[in-house]
Amino acid sequence: MVINNLFRSTLKTQLGSYFKHGVTSGRSQDHFIRAQLLARLYGSEVSLEKDDSTTVLKDGESFKGHDMLAPFTAGWQSTDTNPLVIEKSEGSYVFDSRGKKYLDSLAGLWCTALGGNEPRLVAAATAQLNTLPFYHSFWNRTTKPSLDLARELVDTFTARKMGKAFFTNSGSEANDTQVHPI
């Protein structure tokens, strides 16, 4: 039973409760502040609270015990609680499966800086996907949209003419590539 509790991360809840209630009887205000911070760090009471948006979808389906492992999520949360299911976006807002509206203050983890469901972007993406969804740039191969964007970037963002534009899939890949000799 104890091992089962440890595997289900209830130790964090127990530690959070200890820090919140037990340590607060310490001898100074500093201890009290630290105890509150530790309770927030190790406690999971808030994440276990019931919320209609995460219990059952509007069609009655539940995703409790789902099969997806999500970053920055404790393993027990994918087994014991329902995820918040986001279904659509409009500008800077996203909507869950029950229609509740949220401000997407992180822009989809910085991937939708121009907002979601922007008609001009949808039209441009659809046109390109219908023509050519992807092609690599290895061995001096490319696409016309890549050449057009490279020209615009070189012409726009340089005080003295930069020689080339190099496209990557992510910021990590761009940072890694910049340190390699050309």
UniProtKB/TrEMBL annotation:
Protein's UniProt keywords contain Cell inner membrane: no
Keyword Acyltransferase applies: no
Entries under Pfam families matching the protein: Aminotran_3
GO biological process, one term: biotin biosynthetic process
Top-rank lineage group of the source organism: Eukaryota
Alphabetic keyword roster: Aminotransferase, Pyridoxal phosphate, Transferase
Name of this protein: Uncharacterized protein
Organism field: Rhizophora mucronata (Asiatic mangrove)
Taxon lineage: Eukaryota, Viridiplantae, Streptophyta, Embryophyta, Tracheophyta
